[in-house]
User: What shape does this take?
Amino acid sequence: MPNIAPAPTQLSDLDLIATVARLAARESEATADFIAALAEFDARQLYLGDGCASLFVYCTGRLHLSASAAYHRVTAARAVRRVPPILDRLREGALTLTAVGLLAPHLTDANHRLVLDQARHQGKRTIEEIVA
Assistant: This one.
């Protein structure tokens, strides 16, 4: 039997606050899981077997992601393959896909730990300052 949650309009303020926090954490976890799977999907080039010339084409054509959503996810998947600690930061909600996209071209073996720590829970403008 499916677990049917009450409608948000029927929750008390405290229950709604807890629900929003719980769902945000689950969204971060789901995003990280998707990025990890997409990274492996890309490594194996499984999109080719589905008639797609690239992972981006697969994401937009087969998964029906918007071009922007596909770009951010493909960028993150490729960054995670190169710098695996990014995945943990995504999972805990400490980095957004936008932040990963901005940081990825600047991450090296020598600097990635420091840069990822500086970027933790920062907004886009701060991330832009970090990479500048």
